[in-house]
Design a protein that fits this description.
By secondary structure, the chain is α/β, with parallel strands linked by helices. It has twelve helices and 19 strands. Helix 1 packs parallel to helix 4, helix 1 packs parallel to helix 11 and helix 11 runs antiparallel to helix 12. The N and C termini lie far apart (54 Å). The protein folds into two domains: 207 residues, FAD/NAD(P)-binding domain, CATH 3.50.50; 131 residues, 2-Layer Sandwich (D-Amino Acid Oxidase, Chain A, domain 2). It is found in: Cytoplasm.
């Protein structure tokens, strides 16, 4: 294939595509808005599934590197009632198909698998426009431009490439997440550490949930889910950490203290993450020379598949381009025809609909609402 590939966005999906293209000897450059690999926190834990995310890593030739960063025991799950009663518990016996890793570590192994000059840091895209004949111009915030022969938008929810294909924009899902961290949990927050256990813990209730995950380094990552309009959150002054924490905790008045302490004992100021989604089943007509992957293509309401689907998108697009080196449009058509239905599938877990959080905008790692149908 002689057409260089230009990828916008160095998230997990864009980097997986870059790695698969590199494996097949296809020239590729990735443009990323962040100033460096360490410019910001890369989110929390991700469970990488054996039916999509791990398939992408196999295509990228990185399964050994992946296994080396898996955190043992983190697939353990417990579900608690609001009074602290354990409703469901499952240990991690090492046979599950969703091993947990830190998102930052996964991104690191992808970056390290690429030539050093593949990613061009500090390139924030301000706009894109079609030039005709499958060529597109990308304009950066600093005024610089480039012309791409094959442009891939892997730039997340608020993609600057998506307008070339669709006028769809993400809408608020009706739910937001507020994040907290508890550090040195076993020694400084022993009751909270015991409540969470060795993996993840969820305490679900209509319109609100507390989810916690034991990450690396004895850290508990807390995600508080509230189904509230955006105006409700806008009325909270999140620059006043004490007041904001108290307002969020008040929504759980009457809950067991070992659960509310996950909010009130946080070692960090609360961080608000509003959750958005693109229209379900979004599709577009084939436009020569450009396509999308991951959240840029199919940002979903929380379902736990976001990062995994983005990586699989990247791998499948890379393989399609390698299989059709002389016909880029055939490769893009093949990729999109498989990607559209794949991203629209409903995810289930043991017959119960899965509602999990997992976004390339570095929000929460996951949320399984196992007991929604039981009215918990």
């Amino acid at each position: 294939m002689h057409t260089p590939v230009t990828i916008i966005g160095a998230g997990l999906g864009g980097l997986t595509l870059a790695r698969v293209l590199h494996v097949h000897g296809i020239p590729v450059t990735v443009y990323e808005a962040d100033s460096s690999q360490l410019a910001r926190r890369q989110g929390g834990m991700l469970d990488i599934h054996d039916y999509n995310g791990q398939l992408a890593l196999e295509a990228a030739g990185l399964m050994d590197e992946f296994r080396a960063i898996v955190l043992e025991g983190r697939e353990a799950m417990r579900v608690l009632d609001r009074d602290g009663t354990v409703l469901f518990e499952e240990a991690d016996d090492g046979t599950g198909g969703r091993p947990e890793v830190m998102r930052g570590e996964l991104r690191r192994i992808l970056l390290e698998s690429l030539p050093a000059d593949t990613v061009r840091w500090g390139h924030k895209v301000s706009s894109t426009r079609a030039l005709g004949e499958g060529r597109h111009e990308v304009t950066f915030a600093d005024g610089g431009t480039l012309v791409a022969g094959l442009l891939v938008g892997a730039d997340g929810a608020w993609s600057r490439v998506r307008p070339l294909l669709s006028d769809a924009t993400p809408g608020y899902t009706g739910t937001s997440c507020v994040e907290f961290y508890l550090y040195e949990a076993d020694t400084r927050h022993p009751a909270a550490a015991k409540t969470v256990g060795g993996g993840s813990m969820i305490a679900p209730s209509p319109g609100k949930e507390i989810f916690a995950h034991r990450e690396s380094g004895d850290t508990l990552h807390i995600y508080v889910m509230l189904s509230k309009p955006q105006d409700w959150f806008a009325a909270i002054d999140f620059t006043d950490a004490t007041a904001a924490t108290a307002r969020i905790a008040a929504e759980f008045d009457g809950w067991a203290p070992e659960l509310t302490s996950l909010i009130t004992d946080g070692d960090t100021a609360p961080v608000l993450r509003s959750l958005h989604a693109l229209p379900t089943g979004l599709r577009w007509d084939r436009v020569p020379g450009v396509t999308l992957l991951g959240d840029a293509a199919h940002l979903q309401a929380p379902n736990g598949e976001g990062a995994n689907l983005a990586m699989l998108d990247g791998a499948e697009l890379g393989k399609a381009l390698a299989a059709h080196p002389d016909d880029v449009e055939a490769a893009l058509t093949e990729y999109e025809q498989a990607m559209f239905p794949r991203s629209a599938e409903v995810v289930t877990f043991e017959g119960v609909e899965v509602h999990r959080i997992d976004s390339d905008a570095n929000t929460a790692h996951g949320l399984i609402n196992l007991f929604t149908e039981k009215g918990q």
